[in-house]
Specification:
With 501 residues, the chain is an alpha/beta fold. The chain folds into two domains: 318 residues, TIM Barrel (Alpha-Beta Barrel); 143 residues, Rossmann fold (3-Layer(aba) Sandwich), CATH 3.40.50. 41% of the residues lie in helices and 13% in strands. Helix 17 links the parallel strand 14 and strand 15.
């Protein structure tokens, strides 16, 4: 088969690459003008709202129909607010509140910020059900563990986002919640039956499709009930037969980051990309650090080679490009409101409503706090979906409310030398002061639980604030669960500690 110009343009149409920097590199502008359908923005591309708006305007000048996508889930996974921490809690907090109008309003709020920045596709919401509390990559990104709850909030988020002119993308099909492996590093296995998958994991995706979601993102998961050899991203049994034919989804299917080990490991980035399109995907998300022209060229060549060799039928590539263009047409025709509407403080309102308090020993602690406290924050290493260095915690907002409050942040290496000696600074700083211990998914990290045990043995009056999944609420004289580590979740916890919530 001839490697025609049209074939090369078709291959360009199904690529959504990332890039490095806060301005558009020349290679990207050139490729957009020559047929590249879109780009993906990451936190490395974001500085300020005006900068992002200027960046997207440059991209759109090269291609008026460009798709500009971003992972803006809010909460732990935010790109627009990675430098400051999210002004909205994540899905889990919204699921705890379980107010569909609130979830929809938060999604509208997100969409208005995205639209103002020139972004027209949001790779959200995560429609995964957090069936496994030890899941290393989903957790708070899920609305919860109940399929019905996750389904109705998935639909509400999509309804809010798309009402403001931004295309939603439900992920990670067919459901990443009941896994114990991070697909950035390996292949998670979902070993349930087809009946169990239909009753649990697929429920939110059916709700998303019924709500008219414009896009669905694949998960790099081995779902043995449908395919015991290929992960979902590369499986025609899952993408074509299940998602297209059984569930009736007619929008754009986009892959999770194609460079992730679960799919690129066996086939390379180019081979995985071609196989994903052949399986039924329409667009290849190229993220991570694989963000230069050489990688984009390599993937395009791999897709074209797959067509000429017969691995990828040309009509499948044509269909994929058609669906990408259809989404671009929808974003062009669905203009966002001219003026911003709604409550700019909706995120903090949601975070406040999501806080839950368990009093374990009311006689040992005096709440609200009236004087400076000492805050010890135990910080685990987070998964790759969460930006390193993103602000979180209770110490900073509490210090603003109670001047003189001191903060000590400890990581696993800080306490690995041995307890309790490594916590001497925590005890010293807490002399004569209320002690607040802040943790994040403590149930998943033995070193956090050990540190808590030592601290509480010396200070049974301490308050424990859990900013991850609240696996245990019996820790501390008072246990505070924020159900999220977003900036507003820390603010809400601080307000509660001083009696302002």
């Amino acid at each position: 088969m001839i490697r025609s110009r049209e074939l090369l343009r078709l291959a360009d149409t199904v690529l959504l690459p990332g890039f490095v920097g806060t301005t558009a590199p020349g290679w990207l502008r050139r490729r957009l003008a020559d047929g590249l359908a879109g780009v993906v923005l990451f936190s490395r591309n974001v500085d300020t709202p005006p900068q992002v708006a200027a960046l997207t305007a440059v991209l759109r000048a090269e291609n008026p129909d460009v798709l500009i996508g971003i992972d803006e889930e809010t909460g732990d996974v935010t790109r627009l607010e990675a430098r400051t921490g999210s002004s909205r809690p994540g899905n889990y907090a919204l699921g705890v509140v379980d107010d569909l109008a609130l979830t929809e309003a938060v999604a509208v709020d997100v969409a208005q910020d995205l639209a103002a920045a020139g972004i027209n596709v949001d790779f959200a919401p995560a429609a995964d059900i957090n069936s496994n509390p030890d899941n290393p990559v989903i957790g708070l990104r899920s609305f919860g563990a109940d399929p019905a709850l996750v389904a109705r909030h998935t639909a509400a988020w999509i309804r809010g986002l798309q009402s403001a002119g931004v295309a939603a993308c439900a992920k990670h099909f067919p459901g990443h919640g009941d896994t114990a492996v991070d697909s950035h590093h390996g292949v998670p296995v979902v070993g349930v039956t087809r009946e169990e998958l239909a009753e649990v994991e697929l429920w939110p995706f059916r709700a998303a499709i019924a709500e008219g979601v414009r896009s669905i993102m694949t998960g790099h998961l081995l779902v043995t009930a449908y395919d015991d050899e290929l992960p979902a991203t590369l499986s025609p049994h899952i993408l074509t037969r299940l998602l297209r034919e059984e569930l009736g989804f007619d929008g754009m299917i986009v892959t999770d980051g194609i460079e992730m080990t679960a799919v690129s490991g066996p086939y390379g980035i180019g081979g995985a990309s071609a196989r994903a399109i052949a399986a039924g995907a329409d667009s290849i998300c190229v993220g991570g650090e694989n963000s230069d022209e050489a990688i984009v060229e390599h993937i395009r060549e791999a897709v074209v080679d797959a067509v000429t060799s017969g691995l990828l039928p040309e009509e499948r590539l044509v269909d994929a490009a058609r669906r990408v263009r259809a989404l671009a047409a929808w974003t062009s025709c669905t203009a966002p409101p001219a003026a911003r509407t709604g409550d700019r403080g909706i995120g903090l309102t949601a975070a406040r409503r999501a806080v839950r308090v368990t009093v374990n020993s009311s006689g040992r602690v005096a709440l609200p706090l009236t004087g400076p406290a000492h805050v010890v924050e135990l910080a685990p290493v987070m998964n790759l979906a969460i930006d390193k260095g993103m602000p979180w915690g209770v110490g900073e907002p509490l210090a603003k409310l109670l001047p003189g409050t001191t903060v000590l942040r400890l990581e696993e290496p800080d306490v690995a030398a041995g307890l309790p000696g490594a916590l001497d600074a925590a005890f010293t700083g807490a002399d004569g002061r209320p002690l607040v211990i802040v943790v994040r998914d403590a149930h998943r990290y033995p070193w956090q639980l050990e540190a808590i045990e030592v601290l509480l043995a010396a200070r049974p009056d301490a308050v424990v604030v859990e900013m991850g999944l609240p696996g245990r609420t019996d820790l501390g004289a008072v246990h505070v669960a924020t159900h999220g580590a977003a900036r507003v979740c820390g603010q809400a916890a601080a307000e509660l500690l001083i009696g302002a919530l």
